[in-house]
Every structure is written in C-alpha cells, then in structure tokens.
Amino acid sequence: MTEITAKLVQELREKSGAGMMDCKKALVETKGDVEAAMDFLRKKGLASAAKKSGRAASEGLVSVAADGTFAVAIELNAETDFVARNEQFQKLLNDVTDLALKNKIETIDALKAAKLGDKTVEATVTDLIASIGENMNLRRMQALSVKDGVVASYVHNQIIPGRGKIGVLVALESTGSKEKLSALGRQLAMHIAASRPEALTLDAMDKDTVARERAIHADKASKSGKPAEIVEKMVDGSMRKYYEQVVLMEQTFIIDGQTKISGVLQNAEKEAGAPVKLSGFVRYELGEGVEKKVDDFAEEVAKMAAG
C-alpha cells in the first residue's frame, strides 16, 4: 500500500479543490491512487456538500446591480471571510448577479432554478461547496423596478465592484432627468446604508411593532404621575421620535443633517424637472439575522488530528 504522505494529500487537494480531510480519506480508501481518489471525490461530491449544509454560513458578500429601471440585491453566504475573498466564490456571485439582472429574475426560488451554463444555480452552488469544502448558502434576493425613472445602487465596505458587506437599492419613479435621479438615488442609498430604516412610510410600519412600541412608552409615561392628557401627549412625542429613527420618509437626511427625506424629494423635483417618488428600497447587510455558531478551535483541531 502506498504511504499517504502530506505531499500526496496536497497533490490531490490542488487537483480536486476538495478539503484536506476529504482528500486524506479518499486516498486511504483508494490505497494512495490519486486518479482513483479523484473519482472517489467526484462520486462523493454531493454527499460531502450535504454534510456541510448544517454549518452556519454567516460570512460572504452582498451583491447589488442595476440596469436603468431594474435592479437586484443578492446575498451569498459562506462560513468564513477567507472563502468570501476566494476568486471562485466571487465569480459565482458575479455570474449569479449577472444572470438575475439580464433575465429580470425577481425571486430567490426562480434564481436557484435558473440555468447557469448546463446546470441550475442551486446545483452550481452545491458543486462549489464540494470543491471548496465549506458550506455556502444563496440566502436571499430581491428585485426592484420602476416603469419610468431609475433604480440606483450603493455598496458599503466594497470588496470588489458592486459586492461588499452592505448593499442598497433605491427606486425613484419620475419622468425627470435620469442623470439627476441617479445622483439623488445614490445619495439616498448612502443614507439608507447608514440609517437602517425599517419602513418607507408610516403606513408601511408593522402594526404589531408600532403597538408594542407605543405600549412601552405608555408604561413609562404613566409612571410620571402626570394627568392622563399630558401622558398621552408624552407618548405621542415619544412615538414621533421613534418614527424619525425607523421610517425613511421621517428620517433626517444624513448628508445635510437637517432636511427630512420627504423634503429632500420635494427639493429634488426642481432639479429633475418633474415630480419624484421614492417607491421602494432594499437594504441588505451581510449575515443579519443569521445565528453565528462559535466553535471551540482546540476541539476542532483535536477532531482533525483524530481523523
């Protein structure tokens, strides 16, 4: 039997792109035959990827891309930032983004089912999981479009063009100057990246969230000992401040520090030469809402050594 040396494992790893332990196992199973080990890895590729699917993928990149009146935001996750900087990972995200933009794909399910070459996007992601040896997840996507106007985009903490840690889309409906609208859209997108609005308008706020917030302020105000009518005014004042924090149209424009976003749009109508309506926005921040698992590094090394 051929000795399974570190050099042999490295050779197979470079040839296959698979993880170190997977390569070692393949060589053991095939008695050191590199070509047979390659076949072994190819046959086990999907099974290996499936085993990795339980691991938290909270790193990665957010991608945004716009083409005039249509734009997409996509989040592709990996387990580590190291893989997010891998050229294969970035190429996949670029290809998926281009595919979504070109074909005006609007849902994550439609994107996963779309063909990228001779395979679906979902199958392509699975193949890369097996190749790189780390779990990945095409987590979410959203499209924005306007009949007339522009959809502007902005990426904060950009790693490569159009890809980074925070991605924002802003849809502006208007028959006005596209150049002026694009400049305004980018400024608004920068504002949204920093201010984290939860809703576009007061009416768009989640009713349960508003009721819960009001109840909290009512409880605090009631302890002041003031008359009921004063308490009610105190609650209304607290809710106004709350809306100014979470509702985009009620927020103060970060760039000038004094104008409400609703006022910014009104002022922009003069330069654009037509009414301007902010019809929607998307703000994706990498890993938001993903529960990150903290592994015991020493335990992980011990497991690898035992294998």
Please, what is the average pLDDT? 86
Low-confidence stretches: 46-56, 293-298, 300-305
**What is the architecture of the largest domain at the second tier of CATH?**
2-Layer Sandwich
CATH topology-level name of the largest domain: Tetrahydropterin Synthase, Chain A
Q: What's the SSE pattern?
A: HHHEEHHHEEHEEEHHHHEH
Residue fraction in strands? 15-25%
- In the CATH hierarchy, what is the class of the largest domain? Alpha Beta
What gap, in angstroms, lies between the N and C termini? Answer: 19 Å
Number of helical elements: 12
**Count the strands?**
8
Overall tally of structural domains = 3
Rg for CA atoms: 25 Å
| The CATH fourth-level homologous superfamily of the largest domain | Elongation factor Ts, dimerisation domain
Shape: elongated
Amount of helix: 40-55%
Largest sheet, in brief, is: 6 strands, antiparallel
Decide which structural class fits the backbone. alpha+beta
Characterise this structure.
- The protein has helices at residues 6-16, 20-29, 34-52, 81-84, 87-102, 108-113, 121-132, 178-195, 207-222, 228-246, 261-272, 297-306; strands spanning 59-67, 70-78, 115-116, 119-120, 136-145, 149-160, 163-173, 277-285.
- The chain is built from twelve helices and eight strands.
- The two termini are 19 Å apart.
- Strands 1, 2, 5, 6, 7 and 8 form a six-stranded antiparallel sheet that branches. Strands 3-4 form a two-stranded antiparallel sheet.
- The longest helix is centred in the N-terminal third of the chain and has 19 residues, at 34-52.
- By secondary structure, the chain is α+β, with helices and mostly antiparallel strands.
- Helices cover 50% and strands 21% of the residues.
- It folds into three domains: 6-52, Helicase, Ruva Protein, domain 3 (Orthogonal Bundle); 59-199 and 276-285, Tetrahydropterin Synthase, Chain A; 207-236, no CATH class.
